[in-house]
Amino acid sequence: MLESLFRPKAVAVIGASSKELSIGNRVIRNLIDFGFRGSIYPINPSADEIRGIKAYKSILDCPDDVDVVHMVIPAKFVPQAVEDCGKKGVKHIIINSGGFGETGAEGAAIEKDFLERARRYGIRILGPNCQGVINTDAEIRAYCNFTFTKPDPGFISIVALSGGVAEVIHQAFAQMGVGTRIYASNGNAVDVTIPDIMNYLGEDEGTRVIVTYVEGLRDPANFMKTATAVAARKPILAMKAGRTKEGAKAAASHTGGLAKEDIATDLIFKKAGVLSFRDEGHLIQAAAAFATQPIPQGNRIGIITNTGGPAVIATDVLVAAGCTLPPLSEPTRALLRGKLYPEASIGNPVDVLATGTAQHYRACMDAMMADDSFDCVFVNFVTPFFVDNESIAREIVAVSQQRRKPLVCNLMTDKQQWSEVVRILREGGVPCYPLPGEAARAMAALVHYHFIRRRETAAARTFADVQPDKARKIMAKARAAGRTQLAAAEVYGILDAYKIPAAKWRLAAGPAEAAEAAAKIGFPVVVKADAESVLHKSDMGAVAVNLGSASAVKRAAAQMQKALTAPDLRFLVQKYLPGGLEIIMGAKAEEGLGHAVVFGLGGIHVEVLKDVVFNLTPVSAPEAREMLGAVKSAPLLSGVRGQAGVNREKLAEILQRLSQLLTDHPDIQEMDLNPIMAFADKAFVVDARISIKEPA
Amino acid sequence: MLESLFRPKAVAVIGASSKELSIGNRVIRNLIDFGFRGSIYPINPSADEIRGIKAYKSILDCPDDVDVVHMVIPAKFVPQAVEDCGKKGVKHIIINSGGFGETGAEGAAIEKDFLERARRYGIRILGPNCQGVINTDAEIRAYCNFTFTKPDPGFISIVALSGGVAEVIHQAFAQMGVGTRIYASNGNAVDVTIPDIMNYLGEDEGTRVIVTYVEGLRDPANFMKTATAVAARKPILAMKAGRTKEGAKAAASHTGGLAKEDIATDLIFKKAGVLSFRDEGHLIQAAAAFATQPIPQGNRIGIITNTGGPAVIATDVLVAAGCTLPPLSEPTRALLRGKLYPEASIGNPVDVLATGTAQHYRACMDAMMADDSFDCVFVNFVTPFFVDNESIAREIVAVSQQRRKPLVCNLMTDKQQWSEVVRILREGGVPCYPLPGEAARAMAALVHYHFIRRRETAAARTFADVQPDKARKIMAKARAAGRTQLAAAEVYGILDAYKIPAAKWRLAAGPAEAAEAAAKIGFPVVVKADAESVLHKSDMGAVAVNLGSASAVKRAAAQMQKALTAPDLRFLVQKYLPGGLEIIMGAKAEEGLGHAVVFGLGGIHVEVLKDVVFNLTPVSAPEAREMLGAVKSAPLLSGVRGQAGVNREKLAEILQRLSQLLTDHPDIQEMDLNPIMAFADKAFVVDARISIKEPA
Fold first, then answer.
1. Would the CB atoms of A175 and B413 count as touching at under 8 Å?
2. Predicted ipTM beyond 0.90
3. Third-level CATH fold of B504-576
4. I want to staple B131 with a disulfide (CB 3.0 to 4.6 A). Which of A47, A686, B185, B444 is the partner?
5. Is the pLDDT of residue A538 over 80?
């Protein structure tokens, strides 16, 4: 659907200008300089030509069909111009101008106006307030953009709302000698969205890897759906900024309120299989490796070096990132012993020495490519003046182009003095990095993507023994009563409906009834005041724990009756279960996305150490198990030093039942199972809260 | 003492060669090409001239004094050549050749031989197996080195054993357009050490910042002393590699066993006030900022930008690194409102818009330099084609050169298209980074160094109420008995001697005596078997806790007597102190360095979460307090949600008394106070172990 936006045959510029430093001039210059294969139509009411190209008074005067129109005119003229484009049969408009939604109500009204007109004519809009697109395909060469980086053709496509960061990334690729396939920055994104463009890039054969930058997601569900589908076909590398409160505020100030400090974006990236980065440099360096290298089959790295220290740094980074450096197999050692200098160190790293030749490097690379002990080959290469560095570079290119296993190169050189070495490696598509840590992190990203591809996935389990209607009725009743916070009995009723095990409980109207209930449950018990007006129970003396007798229960309930004047006061009597491991689970509705679910150990683990993990609903069985293992305190679940472990499968099941409850009932705003007491055999919720959304 | 090594007037090359690709030729070429201000003497028995310079048959034939001699000859000829140099009165020899200690016993013998000769003549040796030195000082221009990076003059000096990493760092500076002052790589370092060179650089006026890379420290105490002294005068930026087991192994393979996986190096860096980096890129980027910028007076950053997203990234990085982004003061806002475009965003970041001019940037920079709300100024600067970017660059240079507050620049440009902008900023000494995260981390490093400079330091406290002799006698007695593991009574005796409070205790020979002791201490008590042969008490049933009566004590002791057949079996009866917060402290001798001390909370905090902090003796009062605050579980010390805190000052005192004990008794190999039970008022050691070093 975006085919002719990215592969236009004719581009017109409404607002084309003869003034050198104007965007209306620059766009035309960029199209010419970049060798656009199609026709260019400057539109200007008073000029005959612009940059030597015949200009037209109106888009309606253009002799041929126009695929893409740039608009570089004041906002107020845009709606009429869109109308004209509609009449002309234009398919896409890139609105470079600003002055729309980002500036306030007046601009928003203009935006609404031109959007309605565009929809009427079936025109798709990129922007407004955007840079535009670039396509380096030799058949197209479309530089529909006013920025200045002139990319070589390549395999990486970049897409972002923010022209600033997209440009930074683009410049970095250009500086590294890494080519680009397609570049798209869509500014206010009132029509064509990031997922739209991602879908296109997913289909584009020339795009091997997609790079994106976000400060927030407008339509998280759509992003999730698209990213999941596209990431299954090709790697998506993404960075989210606005992570700190201050950063989110800065983002909001330039986007007009889009960004927020959230965890949902990270969870979406993870669930969709998007490779997430916190450092734009790491993202850029990784993308360069993805552009030309195959995805590895594992995390076992072989290192070849001609200098010591840089291989040590690379080793540290690789190992810290979860890679291993297995020893060479004995046949490989024997082979290399016959081919390298006697003083060469035949380990992993293999040190061919500074005097190592192209033949030495080739022998090592071939050996590691052939040796089943390795999934990836890492090359440190400093260019001493006394060896034939160009030949070494050519051998690295030759091996890299076999694409048997991924190869990255830490090229340590003076780019001016050794320009030929640099050229050979660049043109050969070898991902080269001046610093060993950069090269190692790029390699680790390839490995990380392998693990994402290989991760166990499954549809979320659907438990057949649940009673959604029972839960729905409870919530409906509370809503009808004007409440969003559910009473304890309601909460336990909902848990019952989803077979989420809770400590045995009964409701009692008064102290005497409470004592009877306790006797039926069995001592010791907990007594909790249950009234909507009593929310923070422990702060108000509305909980009494470890009551061992009927008289203790009566006394406690009577005291609560005295202290709390709630007219709806009742008592929840519950089995007291000491000695288990405190677990917490919880959930919070995420706009447009279902719920974020949290898991952790209770007490200091959550309160002091903030040791919790999050995921998005629906939570599958492998995801539930992964969450259990992802907290730092996970060893406590399995038991440490004399303490028994707990039943992890039971906890994983509760997480999945919780997920099903949330999925069935999007109206749940927030809920806490805090704590769940977990034991070697079972686990029971002993306190819980549920709040539902305000009626719309 | 190293003056003439770094500022030679005459350099000779023994092993000078006519062969283009030999080191003996390259060193001469480098000296010539770099414009060495002194005399060059090629030494070659058979050539008349090398690269147009008259050659001599022997160093003894040189017509003048020689400060520095390069040796590029096989190892076996080195001792005689050193002898000749001695006769000539040479002051320094750089041995570029390898084939010495790094290759085995034979090489080590040659090394010993030439070293003895050098000492006899008072010659200092750099290397062997090293690159050499470079000094860019306009009066010197000494390129006594065979490598290839040709630095501009600058303010950063680089020193490292590893030529590979030193070269990588050097190349990165050259690529960034950042100059170097002195470069030194000393390979095997058999004579001139890293601390020797650091001392020299500390005195060198042209060096503003020292960069170093280590894989391990040969003489940690000397490094500590030197680094502490030098870091007080100018910043030292350091990176330690070989952090992972695999990395340390890789390091050992190329240095012949120097590196080890240790924590001591980090502790030394911290104690000495060295700025430590885990990423060579971060180190390089930070050094570029230190080279030209003043140290800030605080962590409050003002950001100026002409593009949105990159400022968001910078904000995230700065805030995550502990910086703040205060709002502009009202007068500053008012001032800027009159000077910027009406649409400009006058917050922090200030967004001058892509169309912002040099005057706009200047107004913002001036305002932030003058506004007391800010300690640093951060500039994002993308170069749109439609503004006068060169003028913006010139204003940034002008403000940077005032050196009122540090300024760094995230310059987002195409270096080829905007080469003049790049040139203006480079020559103006503005630290420029293509990525916002890089610029932000460099700025954060300046701030970090400010906090290191400002940190509270103090001499370790000396407690006058301790009895070193008592402790010494206890250890001497154990050693005389052939033991390195002290018995419990000995351990408590030593703690007593240093007034480290322990739970009340008494020794008892048998069950009856134990019951008497318990009665004197007061119930409940713990009974522990105390015999050298019983080391892992809790595993062997040799500890009984919470004994509430004389009969219980008797029974427990009798059971132990039955179960344990140790001839030296006695009983340690100790007050049982439940309910406190478990603390652990410990220590381990670090070769050549005193002891590493550990602090943390006990139980899962140390066993599962590994939440502990380390320091080196002696531990001062501010250091002890900092350690208490540095564990993640620190809030528990102050009390959380209803639980009382503990007496932090008492714990800090115990740490300091422990430090004094260790300092007074370097013979202590390892000790544990595990746990210490801490309460709101007091703290008591309830279990402890001490082992002393094997007799030498």
1. no
2. yes
3. Dna Ligase; domain 1 (3.30.1490)
4. B185
5. no
Side chain identity at residue A461, one-letter code: R
**Which one-letter amino acid corresponds to residue B123?**
I
Q: Which residues of A touch B22 (CB under 8 A)?
A: 386
Rounded to whole angstroms, how far apart are CA atoms B180 and B137?
Answer: 9
Q: In CATH, which of 3.40.50.1820, 3.40.50.40, 3.40.50.720, 2.60.120.230 is domain B1-131?
A: 3.40.50.720
CB-nearest to B171 from A253, A320, A414 is A414
- Tell whether the model's pLDDT for residue A614 goes beyond 60: yes
Written as one string, the DSSP assignment of B539-600 is: GGT-EEEEE-SHHHHHHHHHHHHHH---TT-EEEEEE--TTSEEEEEEEEE-TTS-EEEEEE
Chain B residues touching residue A308 (CB < 8 angstroms) = 162, 164, 250-251, 254-255
DSSP state of A58: S
Low-confidence residues of chain B: pLDDT under 70: 254-261, 532-541, 641
Tell me the pLDDT tens digit for each residue of B348-393.
Answer: 999 999 999 999 999 999 999 999 999 999 999 999 999 999 999 9
CATH number of A149-292: 3.40.50.261
Percent of chain A scoring above 90 in pLDDT = 85
CATH class of A295-454: alpha beta
Query: CB count, 10 Å around CB of B491?
Result: 24
- Chain A CA closest to residue B172: A434
Domain spans in chain A, listed from the N-terminal domain onward: 1-146, 149-292, 295-454, 456-501+580-696, 504-576
Between positions 461 and 520 of B, the ones with CB within 8 A of A are none
**What is the model's pLDDT at position B332?**
95
- Kindly state which CATH superfamily the domain A1-146 is placed in: NAD(P)-binding Rossmann-like Domain (3.40.50.720)
Q: Search chain A and give the residue with CA nearest B307.
A: A164
| C-alpha to C-alpha distance for A111 and A128, rounded to whole angstroms | 8
Strands of the sheet with A39-43, listed across from one edge = A39-43, A10-14, A68-71, A92-95, A124-126
Q: Point out the least confidently predicted range of A240-254, A294-308, A337-351, A359-373.
A: A240-254
Question: What residues contact B464, with CB distance under 8 A and at least 6 apart?
Answer: none
pLDDT digits (tens, 9 = 90+) for B637-683: 998 867 789 999 999 999 999 999 999 999 999 999 999 999 999 99
Residue-wise pLDDT for A125-160, tens only, equals: 999 999 999 999 999 999 999 999 999 999 999 999
CA of A393: how far to CAs of A293, A306, A397, A416, A602, in Å?
Answer: 16, 13, 6, 16, 56
User: Which residues in chain B have their CB less than 8 angstroms from residue A280's CB?
Assistant: 313, 435-437
Strands ordered across the beta sheet of B350-351: B345-346, B350-351, B301-305, B376-382, B407-412, B432-433
Quick check: A535 pLDDT over 80?
no
Q: Find chain A residues with C-beta within 8 A of B313's C-beta.
A: 165, 241, 247, 280
